[in-house]
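During the practical work, I selected for study one protein's amino acid sequence and its backbone structure tokens, as given directly below:
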Amino acid sequence: MKIVAAGVALGLVWTVGMSAQSDRNAGNAEVAEARAIFKQLIEINTTDSVGSVTAAAEAMRQRLLDAGFPAADLKLLGPNDRKMNLVARYRGKQGSTLKPMLVICHLDVVEANRSDWTTDPFVFTEKDGYFYGRGTYDVKDGDAAAIEAFLRMKRDGFVPSRDIILALTADEEGGASNGVGWLMQHHPEEMQAEFVINPDGGGMTTVNGKPYSLNVEATEKTYADYVLTATSPGGHSSEPMPGNAIYRLVAALAKVEKYQFPFELNEVTRAQFAALAKLDGGRPGADRMAVLKTPPDPSALKRLNENPEIYPALHTTCVATMIQGGHAPNALPNKVQANVNCRILPGHTQEQVREELVRVIGDTEVKVAYKSDGGRVTDTAPNRASAAPPPPLPAVFDPLKQVVEQMWPELVIVPSMEFGATDSIYTMAAGMPSYGISGMGMDRDENRAHGKDERIKVPDFDAGCEFFYRYLKAVAK
């Protein structure tokens, strides 16, 4: 899931220095190699329905083998033959006392129908200055950048100061065998690290094609699905009766639609708004500053709430996403169910939100249950709040500042909150500080991740690969 909202956390926003801009691109051979890796990944279908993450993991493992990485350091681990994860270890200096760093990036992609797209989603297509294909932005661009960085560092003869672990994984977008979660449960020894870098959570925001901010994920909302169920006795449709389950469920969903979870700024979003107020200026900037006051300015909050890209930063959100019910066109329904998907602000539990939905619906005949990632439905939900935002580790942010200085002078580095969800939830829960960092760019007014004709600008991909190579090398010096 790659939905990045520009923000800042922990007071860490800065404008990098005025040093001369370095040449941001690799040599022609390395650019071609990165694009070839990208093409190979896009054209391997890794959807949950019919694809194979294993095929992509094996292809990337072979590239690393061909570059001279020992087979023993390139492990394929997973629950079944379609969902094997690649865990590659780039060995650091012998005798190093530094704990490894972990890079996680998912290989799976969401479904894509050929009939919906202008181009074939599983054919890597270059057109009008863009690369098209499912996963070009979420997040096979990050997979390709990570593999290319490993290959370039190996050719450089680079020996990192600590082990670099790269996990390319399954089921981040859906499916019952989440790769990072599965690895943390079944092979924790392969994943232990001092900190985690996740290209799925960060990225470059551009405005009219020009770099605007480099967004670094510092926290994220919690994902939760709830099943709303209404039942009724049923009967023949020629004899309608009160308590029709469809009407009852529709009434409950209407209440959910109208309900607004309380306005709330956390440590991340409070600082995020302060930073973006300076970047945006004008009325948008003034409104951001106005809601930082106690109490927030109601007119400014109303205007910000009307922006669908800002609203999720201020509230927990719940929305109906699926509905099913009835068994015949001429019969009253016995049972009707709807799925309500929620994205919960940090500091709140899934059970607290379930209880709030029960209160809002106010109908004891509509049951609100929790559905786990594996599809199990239970009467109650987990009652553990999400992990607190990690500290801004110098080992992570000092090299980041250095590389941004080289590539994009005057660019603002802006830690952010992820509105969706990434696999960092598993590493954060294990106590490993996790940060979404990527140099891949996308214009502020365009986000086709999960949608039709997903794409990335060709120069943005090239620059993103160069950034990640420089960044990994700087972190591991």
